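Students often ask why inverse folding is considered easier than folding. One informal answer: many sequences map to the same fold, so there is more than one right answer. In these notes we will look at a single instance of the problem. The structure comes first.
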């Protein structure tokens, strides 16, 4: 017992010495090193996927239209796009089966990001390479944004490392296919919004402000309506604009709006809300106008069309065509994926991504391997896995609730919970995937909670280091498995 205590103390001292050395490095040097490390990590696993919907969309934008050429057969899969499923054929919109072309139901920002690359390389654009680059930049933005929190540099570094290598952002960035690239783009803009809001509100982690009496509040609103510009804080408008741009890559992020009501420039929740709201409504309003202009509907009908196809085409996923795309009845089965789904341990049959199952270990003399697809020790489930299992350092966020309440903590928790609930009501949870990719929609709001949780516990101690190290190891395991299985 005494030996174990002594070893633990020695380990803690070694960790402190290492972090003391890191504390003395200039922030710019650390940030650049993190970006370089992310570039290497995201690129090295390798990938050869062909889901490049946004490349086709970017090409259409360059031609002055939102309609992609479809179906295009350039010599079989993966050439062309005649094999694509997540599209909305114009024939469905016009009612004429002979109408060529298709629309993408996805928000357009990821395609806009790809426009300059597609202008140079056309359909040969490597969306994965762009995803790796954007993902590495996301890590740098996270380092910058977390520097606005009232935490030490070592906590800032530990949280950034957790974000970049201990969450499913790693899997998303290194993969770079259509759905994952959208997450990577959204995360960058959302991190920038977080950093701007935190920088404009250095007291956000103080005690929760008390609401003004009704009479005083009413007078304040009347005074500010008479002077409308008094309601605006330029930094908060910028935070709202960046937040709105993130929503034009992943629309569920819009439900994180409560964060910007409680955190950011303006001094009161009214000014914060109005300022952020004006910034947000510009890109989100343009997205809705884009939908109307291209489909005649405020919300893209391609989602419902695709939902009906998947509900009938993949019965093993337990979708229900008679339910809505967003339906509370999906909560139970999706909560199980988000929190309880575990890898297949010593499987006798490998879990296939489309509900199939191939025999494994049929030879009694077979030896199981760590990354042997025929006879694995453990294998991730393509339907998804628990976020607490794949990123256990999220547990540090609960320590942020200790000792006092703050606007920052309240806003972050509200944003995480609101986005998670909306996603959990969605019929699909993001398969085929490692981990739980929809967590990328709220991970940015969870990062301050993880950082403040460590701060409440007195810094990066053995528990924090262990949970972050475990998160990195598990996500490395998942990235390798994803590439082994071709997910």
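Output (designed amino acids):
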């Amino acid at each position: 017992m005494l030996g174990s205590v002594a070893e633990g103390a020695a380990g803690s001292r070694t960790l402190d010495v290492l972090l003391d050395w890191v504390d003395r490095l200039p922030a710019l040097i650390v940030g650049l090193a993190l970006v370089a490390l992310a570039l290497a990590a995201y690129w090295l696993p390798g990938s050869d996927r062909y889901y490049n919907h946004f490349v086709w969309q970017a090409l259409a934008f360059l031609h002055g239209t939102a309609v992609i050429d479809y179906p295009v057969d350039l010599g079989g899969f993966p050439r062309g796009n005649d094999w694509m499923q997540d599209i909305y054929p114009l024939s469905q919109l016009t009612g004429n089966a002979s109408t060529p072309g298709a629309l993408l139901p996805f928000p357009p920002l990821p395609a806009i990001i790809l426009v300059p690359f597609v202008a140079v390389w056309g359909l040969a654009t490597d969306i994965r390479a762009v995803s790796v680059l954007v993902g590495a930049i996301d890590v740098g933005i996270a380092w910058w944004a977390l520097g606005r929190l009232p935490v030490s540099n070592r906590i800032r570094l530990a949280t950034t490392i957790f974000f970049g290598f201990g969450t499913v952002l790693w899997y998303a960035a290194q993969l770079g296919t259509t759905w994952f690239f959208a997450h990577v783009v959204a995360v960058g803009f959302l991190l920038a919004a977080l950093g701007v809001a935190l920088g404009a509100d250095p007291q956000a982690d103080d005690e929760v402000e008390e609401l003004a009496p009704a009479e005083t509040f009413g007078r304040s609103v009347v005074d500010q309506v008479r002077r409308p510009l008094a309601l605006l804080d330029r930094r908060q408008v910028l935070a709202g604009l960046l937040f709105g741009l993130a929503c034009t890559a992943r629309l569920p992020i819009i439900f994180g709006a409560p964060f910007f009501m409680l955190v950011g420039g303006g001094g009161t929740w009214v000014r914060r809300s109005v300022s952020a709201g004006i910034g947000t409504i510009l890109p989100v309003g343009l997205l809705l106008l884009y939908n109307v202009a291209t489909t005649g509907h405020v919300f893209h009908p391609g989602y419902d069309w695709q939902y009906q196809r998947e509900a009938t085409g993949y019965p093993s996923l337990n979708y229900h065509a008679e339910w809505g795309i967003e339906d509370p009845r999906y909560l139970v089965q999706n909560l199980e994926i988000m929190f309880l789904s575990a890898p297949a341990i010593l499987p006798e049959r490998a879990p296939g991504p489309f509900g199939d199952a191939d025999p494994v270990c049929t030879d009694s003399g077979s030896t199981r391997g760590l990354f042997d697809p025929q006879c694995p020790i453990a294998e991730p489930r393509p339907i998804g896995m628990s976020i607490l299992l794949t990123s256990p350092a999220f547990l540090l966020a609960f320590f942020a609730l200790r000792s006092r309440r703050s606007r920052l903590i309240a806003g972050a928790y509200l944003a995480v919970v609101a986005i998670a609930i909306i996603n959990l009501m969605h019929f699909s949870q993001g398969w085929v995937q490692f981990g739980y990719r929809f967590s990328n929609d709220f991970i940015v709001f969870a990062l301050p909670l993880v950082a403040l949780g460590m701060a409440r516990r007195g810094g990066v101690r053995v528990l924090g280091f262990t949970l972050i190290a475990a998160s990195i190891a598990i996500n490395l395991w998942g990235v390798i498995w994803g590439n082994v299985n071709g997910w």
